[in-house]
Specification:
The radius of gyration is 31 Å and the shape is rod-shaped. The protein has a four-stranded antiparallel β-sheet with strand order 2-3-1-4, covered by helices on one side. It has 172 residues and is α+β, with helices and mostly antiparallel strands. Helix content is 45%, strand content 16%.
């Protein structure tokens, strides 16, 4: 990619080298787009454009190019510094800690757990983590706050529920 710089005094060789290397890089970037070779596209485009630019024909162009490069660098820096923070995922489940794991297998608990579907829950499943037993109750993303509060109240009324907290489900 640096070969054209050695040919900058010989106009025809410079143009030829820029076009050949730029075209080859563009073809390489297109062929390997999905493998990350798209990163060569800016370099290829610069080489192709450089073939048609001659600062000797427009003396003020060199100073203007420096100014433009500085403006682009500042614009990129401003865009990077002012980008919005990634949004926190909206909570879409309640996690209820249970007093014991045997609760998950009781008939009354299972029946009442299934009744949570009538209050907006989509799934309800139990699991063990760090020697505690939990009931995970998921609900749709757009569930109104009043229905969420009612769902939380119904979960808290299940036998053996110690605490209920709102949390986001990890997508991993």
């Amino acid at each position: 990619m640096g070969i054209p710089l050695y040919l900058r005094r010989e106009r025809q060789g410079f143009v030829r080298a820029c076009l050949i290397i730029g075209s080859a890089l563009l073809a390489w970037a297109a062929a390997g787009f999905l493998l990350g070779m798209f990163m060569f596209i800016p370099t290829a485009m610069l080489l192709v454009v450089a073939a048609f630019v001659d600062p000797r024909t427009r003396p003020g162009l060199r100073d203007r190019g420096v100014l433009d490069a500085l403006l682009v660098a500042v614009a990129i820096l401003v865009a990077f510094l002012t980008r919005p923070a990634p949004a926190e995922p909206e909570p879409d489940s309640y996690q209820a800690r249970l007093d014991s794991g045997s609760r998950l297998h009781e008939q009354d608990f299972a029946t009442r757990k299934d009744q949570l579907m009538g209050f907006g829950a989509t799934t309800a499943s139990g699991y063990e983590s760090c020697q505690h037993f939990y009931l995970e109750v998921e609900f749709p993303e757009g569930l109104p706050d009043a229905r969420r509060a009612e769902l939380k109240k119904q979960i808290a009324m299940l036998p053996g529920v110690v605490e209920v907290e709102l949390r986001a489900i990890d997508g991993c």
